[in-house]
Amino acid sequence: MGRLDGKVIVLSAAAQGIGRAAAIAFAKEGARVTATDINGEKLKELDAFEGIRTKVVDVTKKDQVEALAKDHDHIDVLFNVAGFVHHGTILDCEEADWDFTMNVNVRSMYLMCKAFLPKMLEKKSGNIINMASVASSIKGVVNRCVYSTSKAAVIGLTKSIAADFIEQGIRCSCVCPGTVDTPSLRDRIQAQPDPEQAYKNFMARQKTGRMCTAEEVAHLCVYLASDESAYVTGTEHIIDGGWRL
After folding, report:
1. pTM for this structure?
2. Which partner for 59 in 101, 108, 191, 195 could form a disulfide, CB atoms 3.0-4.6 Å apart?
């Protein structure tokens, strides 16, 4: 018996990193997983795992999100993972950067929650997990202005949904990682003028001496998706190796 036996789970940004690790972890615990991403080529790799079906979806597009929701008669867990990390202060953030980040990091979650929540309310049961970050209202982080602002908004969205629908059987929580060793992070490091120094800078702030792994975040997500967390809602779940301290 898996911890998620029979649960129907939909998640975004599943082609790599935390989303991929979570999709695999969900499926291994018995869930029926719909894994979505805009990167169809990488997403196909998940087809090899029993319990996972893949679908190319741009979660910033309302029509695609609504079509995804219509494709599901029932859903137990919605995991919103899609996000983008902008580097810079407010002075480095142009209007286009602000709009793009907010669209990917916040509006996508608004669209997904609005599309899938009615299905949960029909059953008076549902669980939404949103990907936030320690870089948010939790901790001020250098050169993460619009990213931190967007993730603080995710925390606010999470608490709002949790408060509005708690009496209708809906739970909503968010995951707040610190620095996670993912392909996205590695790409951002390589894009810096001095990748070696950029890597050292990331490592210097890791009080445990290492970064978090995507699999470690996935373990937390399995707990939040399971009935083990049935009394948990409206809360931020920090997994940062003490970075915020």
Report:
1. 0.96
2. 108
Given 110, 147, 199, 223, which residue is catalytic?
Answer: 147
The confidence band for 179, taking pLDDT boundaries of 50, 70 and 90, is: very high
Q: What is the count of structural domains for the chain?
A: 1
DSSP state, residue 178: S
- CA–CA separation, 192 and 182 (whole Å): 16
- What residues have CB less than 8 Å from 95, skipping those under 6 apart? none
CB 25 within 8 Å of CB 215: yes
Residue 2 placed within a domain: no
CATH number of the domain that 187 lies in?
Answer: 3.40.50.720
As a whole number, the mean pLDDT across the chain is 97
Establish if 156 belongs to a structural domain. Answer: yes
147 is catalytic: yes
Written as six digits, the tokens of 120 are 């949960």
